[in-house]
Amino acid sequence: MKKKVNIKDIANVTGFSIATVSKVLRNDPYVKDSTRKKILEVIKTTGFVPDEVARSLVMKKTTNFIGLIISDISNPFFSELTLGVEAEAKKRNCGVIVCNTHYDEKEERKYIDILIRNRSLGILLATPTINDPNISFLKNIHYPFVLITRKVENIDTNLISVDHFKSAKMAVNYLIQNGHKEIAHFTSPIKVYGFIKRLEGYKSALNANNIKIDEKLIIMNESSLKGGYESAETLFRKNKRPTAIFASDDLIAIGAMEYFKKMSYKVPEDISIIGYDNIAISGIYLINLTTVNQPKYEMGEISVKILLEQIETTTNFKPIKCILKSHIVERGSVLKRYDL
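Request: output the structure for the sequence above.
Response:
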């Protein structure tokens, strides 16, 4: 019988102490990158699984819940996503434990460790940044997980998402087709796949239509009502008056609309705006926001199906990538400028 690799073996092979190997497994931020890389490479080649994780995987059939880690529980996008997760999990007689990170990787890791210790069947993550080390950890220990709307660079994982680049390009083209050429973009500086790809899609649409990119029209702030309000305020302080704005999510768009209302600007007569996500409140009469729909509920349902398929596949499981279609929901926040 092949000898099981343990943490002492990893220490002997790498030349580092058991304490250092343990720190890498805990994702301790104070370990040097070169040290972390060497230890993780050995872990990957040996197939080492920490005892705590091994116990969890062996006993997974005695548990009956999955973990869902989200970035911001106050954002309705995540609330609607959670409803889809819960609905599908209920069909499978699974419970769901929801964890909120506030976009903090350390909080994310804390919840990952808690879910592993308590032997969750697997983890759904709508949190990672593009270089999130926690995803490398999960991949290296072979723990079942699915990324929702978030992609991590250079790691092959389960993924459920829309094509954020194409969706953003579609939104900006919609504005251009309605006569807008001076288009601002409100987004977040957080390095997550969706925001990065939406910015790229915005620039691509402008380039394709021979519209010069003005970096002063790209405003970054937090993804929230407050962030949207402050982005609009920042834009107007620069004495920039675009005819339209593409916001990276609906909360940013609605926050910007609040600023315009305060300053007595009318939407869409004075300035048009298109959002992204199609959260429920974007459709109420007083907001009436034109936006890009992400099938949030469906994403939640499918993420559970993918996770359980991985759990039930004991050998040769290949990561599943499911890219859903998005579309524009036309409401009343974009003016058709027939004069241009």
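The chain has three domains: 7-46, 51-162+296-324, 164-294.
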